[in-house]
Amino acid sequence: MNVQNLAAALRGGLIQQDRLLKLDTPLGANALTVLRAVGRSTIGRDYAFTLDVVSPDNAIELKKLIAQPVTLWLSQVNGQYRPIHGYIYTARQLGVDGGLTTYQITLQAWMHVLKFRRDQKIWIDKTADDIVSDVLNQHPEARGRFRFALSQTLPNRSYTRQSETDWHFVHRLLESEGLFGYWEQADDGQSHTLVITDRLAACPELSPTTVSFYRGGTRIEADGLTQWSGTRTLQSVTHTTRTFDYKNPSQPSNLKGTTLPTMGGQGELPDQLEIYEYTGAYTFQQQQHGDRLSHIRMEEWESRAKRFHGVGGARAIDAGRRFVLSGHPVHDRDPADQREFATISVTWWIENNLPATRMRDFPHSLHRDIDKARTNRSGNTPTTPSHDDDSAGFYLVEVEAQRVSVPYRSPFE
Q1: At the fourth CATH level, which superfamily is domain 113-200?
Q2: What is the pLDDT averaged over residues 90-114?
Q3: Does domain 3-110+344-403 fall into CATH 2.30.110?
Q4: Which of 167, 237, 350, 392 is most buried, with most CB under 10 Å away?
Q5: What is the DSSP letter of 64?
Q6: Helix (H) or strand (E) holding 168
């Protein structure tokens, strides 16, 4: 099908039916059709999908797209669609070819708007979840779209000050308490919700729970992973802190502190790799609270020390999901708890299975990213989902994961 025929099909309104990718926008049904998508999602942060889209309308006003809700639908191997809801925060026109105009939009979680509000505010004797709730409720997009799933009650913070953007403040506060978030998508594709937790066990399981490993070179369209490898990196081995209780300066026990070594089983690590910090006045009043803060910092290092990376065609995968790896020649010998993983970050490269010849190459188009992914990872058997009209697409996903048995903490940034 040439570009002119594709334009006619778009006007007919049936071109998105049963495709790998579909898109709902406020412009109406089939107003924009996805050519390709590149996305990334990270636990403890947010997600973003950049889409090249086409339309027979060459006069779409970009300002009418900004901050508007959209839903990207990703086809699953069982024929159902998984929604990815977000807001358009970037839109551009790329060019015109044969009666079709190519646009590019970036949809992101509502968390992105927190970067554009800054405040100077103080909270006295409030918990971190109360403070975060206060900040998020300033944004209409976030109201009713976040919740906490914590294993224990957080302690009161005697003094908390914001002097930065809402985005930076919320993440700084969550990181200091060992909290992180993952995103839930509503089944109807009309909303997304941030779930803030302190343990990987609270993250939902993939459906199905098992992700299969296929050896590279397989000729089937694998809804799994075709590459899986581990990475270990050196981290600090001891965390030592000191603080000062300015409310009781004359008490002998005034000078408080913690010393915490890393967990065992990580090899022969140099024992001089200590991080010493004076954390400021009155960082904690009770020793138990100080120990907890040190554990959070140490667990962040231990989380980064061992990660796993996978490549393949798993359709249901997303950041902040738990799965069991099956069929791997090494991990199949491990105990069950050592084969359960949580996804830390996921990157997608997708080309829709549309019936069209290659369209004109426009600056900023995603086609270079897709071509690079196709070329550099050709040995990893990316999937080529096909349509009934024999149109073939491209789907490749990269996953960073860690074992669920190891606590996860977001990096202190």
Answers
A1: Baseplate protein-like domains (3.55.50.10)
A2: 95
A3: yes
A4: 350
A5: G
A6: helix 166-176
CA–CA dist 78, 262 (Å, integer): 44
Determine the pLDDT at residue 124: 96
What are the tens digits of pLDDT across the range 115-172? 999 999 999 999 999 999 999 999 999 999 999 999 999 999 989 999 999 999 999 9
Q: Among positive and negative, which fits the CA dihedral 127, 129, 132, 138?
A: negative
Q: If we measure between CA atoms, which residue out of 154, 159, 173 comes closest to residue 247?
A: 159
Residue 267 CA to residue 400 CA, distance in Å, equals 22
> Which two three-digit tokens encode residue 212?
């299969």
d(CA 328, CA 212): 8
The set of residues, in sequence order, having a beta carbon less than 8 Å from that of 29 and lying 6+ positions away, is 13
Residue with tokens 């981290």: 235
Q: How far is CA 99 from CA 19, 36, 103, 306, 355, in A?
A: 22, 19, 13, 51, 16
Structure tokens at 3: 């570009």
DSSP assignment letter at 367: H
Q: Give the other-Cβ count within 10 Å of 17's Cβ.
A: 10
- Residue-wise pLDDT for 306-341, tens only, equals 899 999 999 999 999 999 999 998 888 888 888 999
Torsion angles phi and psi, residue 38, rounded to 5: -130, 125
For residue 155, count other CB atoms closer than 10 A to its CB.
Answer: 16
Average pLDDT over residues 376-390: 63
Give the Cα-Cα-Cα angle 54, 56, 60 (nearest 5 degrees).
Answer: 80
Structural domain boundaries in the chain = 3-110+344-403, 113-200, 238-305
